[in-house]
Write a structure and sequence with these properties.
FAD/NAD(P)-binding domain; 5-stranded antiparallel β-sheet; globular
Length: 340
């Protein structure tokens, strides 16, 4: 088959660290976890990112006991610190979840029971042997770029297997775009989200058609579908502070709470926070983070604001329906304007 333009979209597969043996029944990835035909009374989940968090939410709701194992020094490492703190209080502490932080699952052997050898993440020395009914490996995903024949065009994926692209989605070799070859989705390693892949696909096709377009990654939102939900768009506060140091501006951050929101009170779901991060000089919104009822829907407003590079000064005067959950963001924008 030949074509004028080719778009590579091979996607990704779950990453299984060395030392972990998968059998698809007692030790499995998120792919198998979705079609499991039994409910483990006690399950270990390796990883506390989106996937680990969502599965712990499901398993505890179904009555399983969960042990969450995280190699990094803190739980939910990819989340804004304020959100992670509250999410731990609401999603983890009151539920049947034991957490082991700074621990590496050095060896996992399937069977009945599943045997997990836990090591200190820093020293790599074994500190505990855990025996559980099942183990979910939620340690992220890697690009499915093997055996595609990429070498025939001189394309060498990076050491993790990702294909290098520019913001027009053209494949790069030594920093230069390859004519008529494009890549989208998880294999590009940009944002491993279905809607990000879709946006990249649209961008690639627009560029193929001669209409120049780039992907604006900062305005692409993400969500974890827990109860309540977690969502974010743009920069976390630590990332914004890094950017501020480089570019010489001050960061502002405001927080509003669902417990003061009429709709959340009426729904009886008042656990939650909305956090907006912005530049103090221009007021431009840099990031938004929401934990609470319907957070995945609420984040879209902030994503659109970031896409248009709107400022808190403009957003503070937009009218929101009362009583709705959207007022948590309305309140945040107004608070940002009155704070600075």
């Amino acid at each position: 088959m030949t074509a004028q333009d080719i778009i590579l979209s091979p996607g990704s597969v779950p990453f299984v660290p060395p030392g972990i043996e998968i059998d698809g029944k007692t030790v499995f990835t998120s792919d198998d976890g979705l079609k499991l035909d039994w409910l483990p009374p006690w399950i270990a989940i390796i990883g506390s990112g989106y996937i680990g968090l969502e599965f712990s939410d499901i398993y505890t709701a179904l009555g399983s006991e969960v042990t969450m194992i995280e190699a990094l020094p803190q739980l939910m490492p990819g989340f804004d610190p304020d959100i992670a703190k509250l999410a731990q209080r609401v999603l983890i502490a009151p539920r049947d979840i034991e957490t082991k932080v700074g621990m590496l699952a050095k060896k996992v052997t399937p069977g009945s029971p599943v045997v997990i050898e836990l090591a200190d993440a820093k020293t790599k020395e074994t500190v505990e042997i855990l025996e559980v009914d099942a183990c979910l490996v939620a340690t992220g995903r890697i690009p499915a770029t093997k055996n595609l024949g990429l070498e025939s065009v001189g394309l060498e994926p990076d050491r993790r297997g990702f294909i290098s692209v520019n913001d027009e989605m053209a494949v790069l070799i030594d920093g230069e775009p390859v004519p008529h070859l494009w890549a989208i989705g998880d294999a590009t390693g940009k944002l491993m989200l279905a809607h990000a892949a879709s946006a990249q696909g649209i961008t690639a096709v627009e560029n193929i058609c001669g209409r120049t377009r780039q992907v604006d990654y900062r305005s692409i939102p993400a969500a974890a579908f827990t109860h309540p939900e977690v969502s974010f768009v743009g920069l976390s506060e630590p990332a914004a502070q890094e950017l501020a140091k480089e570019e010489g501006f001050q960061v502002g951050a405001v927080r509003t709470y669902f417990k003061g929101n009429s709709k959340a009170i009426a729904e009886g779901e008042t656990d939650g926070i909305a956090k907006v991060i912005y530049r103090q000089d221009t007021g431009e919104v840099l990031g938004a983070h929401i934990f609470g009822l319907h957070a995945s829907d609420l984040i879209q407003e902030a994503a659109n604001a970031i896409a248009q590079r709107r400022t808190v000064h403009e957003l503070a005067f937009l009218v929101h329906t009362h009583p709705t959950l959207s007022e948590v963001l309305d309140e945040a924008y107004k608070r940002a304007v009155t704070t600075h």
